[in-house]
Design goal:
mainly alpha; two-stranded parallel sheet; 12 helices; globular
Length: 291
C-alpha cells in the first residue's frame, strides 16, 4: 500500500460496513502524530526493517529455513519433534545456567532498542516516555492483569485444541516445549524464558511496530494483518499449525492493543501462555505423560 493510500485509510471515517471496520477507521486522540514528510516516512520504515532484522525478522528467516528442512526429510511432519528450551551444556548445570540466562537477557536488547528509538527518533508524542506511550508501565496493574489472564484463557484453550488437531492432520510437528535437565533452577529459568518471549514479541511486534507504521500513515487493518503474518512466520519451525495459530493470536492481540493502547496486557497474556506451556510440559514429562 502506498503512503498516500495508507494516510487516506487512516483519516477517512467509515460510513458503513461492520462495527469492526468502523472501529478501525475511527481516528483516536491516542494515535501517534503522523509523519508527513515522505523522506522521514521512508526513514521510519527502514528503521522498522532494521529492528526486525536484529530481532524477530531474523527469527522468521531461520523459521522458514527450518520448515523447508523438515518438509524435505523422509519422515512426515507430524512424526517429527521440535525441541525448545534445551540444555546447552548437559552435565554442567552452573555453566548451563549461565548459557540460559544469557539467552534470555541478550534478546531483550532489541526491546530496549525499540523503546530507545521511539523515545529519541520521531517521538510519537511530546513529553511522553516511549514505555508509557505503548502502555508498558504499571499505571493500570489490576486491569492489565485481568485483561492478560482473560486473553490467555480465550487464546490458550482453543489454541491447545488447535495444536492437537494440526498434529493429527499432519501439518505440525510435536512440540517438546521444555528440555532442560532436572536441576533446581529449571522452573525459574522456564518462567524467565516465557517473560522474555512475551516482552520481545509484544513490545517489538505490537507496541513498536504498530506505533511506527501508524506514524507513516498505514491503516490499522494493514498494520494488524502484516504484524500477524510476521508473527506466524517466525513460528513456522513448529509447522503450519504453529504458523496459522500464531496469526490468529496476532490478530486478536493487535485488535486489543488498538482498543486499549496498552501492551502490558499482551505481555501478561503471552507470559502466562508460555509459562503454562513450558512448566506444564516439564511437569508432565517428569511424570511420564506424553503430549
Amino acid at each position: 500500500m502506498s503512503s498516500d493510500a495508507g494516510a487516506a485509510a487512516t483519516e477517512a471515517p467509515s460510513t458503513g460496513g461492520s462495527a469492526l471496520a468502523r472501529f478501525l477507521s475511527r481516528p483516536s486522540p491516542r494515535d501517534p502524530s503522523p509523519v508527513t514528510d515522505p523522506a522521514a516516512r521512508r526513514d521510519l520504515r527502514w528503521e522498522t526493517v532494521l529492528v526486525l532484522g536484529v530481532s524477530l525478522g531474523s527469527s522468521a528467516v531461520y523459521a522458514v529455513l527450518s520448515i523447508i528442512e523438515k518438509l524435505t526429510r523422509p519422515v512426515p511432519l507430524s512424526q517429527q519433534t521440535t525441541a525448545m528450551n534445551q540444555s546447552a551444556t548437559p552435565g554442567r548445570p552452573w555453566l548451563d545456567l549461565a548459557y540460559q540466562l544469557a539467552g534470555i537477557v541478550l534478546p531483550l536488547v532489541a526491546v530496549a532498542l525499540a523503546l530507545y528509538l521511539l523515545n529519541h527518533v520521531r517521538r510519537p508524542a511530546v513529553d511522553v516516555r516511549a514505555g508509557h506511550f505503548v502502555g508498558l508501565d504499571r499505571r493500570e496493574p489490576g486491569r492489565d492483569l485481568l485483561r492478560g489472564l482473560g486473553l490467555a484463557a480465550v487464546i490458550g484453550i482453543p489454541g491447545l485444541g488447535f495444536y492437537f488437531l494440526a498434529k493429527a492432520i499432519g501439518i505440525n510437528t510435536q512440540v517438546s516445549a521444555a528440555n532442560l535437565e532436572a536441576v533446581w533452577w529449571s522452573a525459574p529459568v522456564l518462567v524467565l524464558a516465557a517473560v522474555e518471549n512475551a516482552l520481545i514479541e509484544e513490545v517489538v511486534m505490537v507496541g513498536y511496530l504498530f506505533t511506527r507504521w501508524r506514524q507513516t500513515g498505514w491503516s490499522w487493518p494493514l498494520i494488524i494483518g502484516l504484524s500477524a503474518v510476521i508473527r506466524g512466520s517466525y513460528h513456522l519451525y513448529q509447522g503450519f499449525g504453529g504458523f496459522a495459530g500464531n496469526i490468529v493470536m496476532g490478530l486478536v492481540l493487535g485488535l486489543v492493543f488498538v482498543r486499549t493502547r496498552r501492551v502490558m496486557p499482551l505481555v501478561v497474556c503471552h507470559a502466562v501462555l508460555d509459562t503454562v506451556a513450558f512448566v506444564g510440559y516439564s511437569v508432565l514429562q517428569a511424570r511420564g505423560v506424553s503430549i
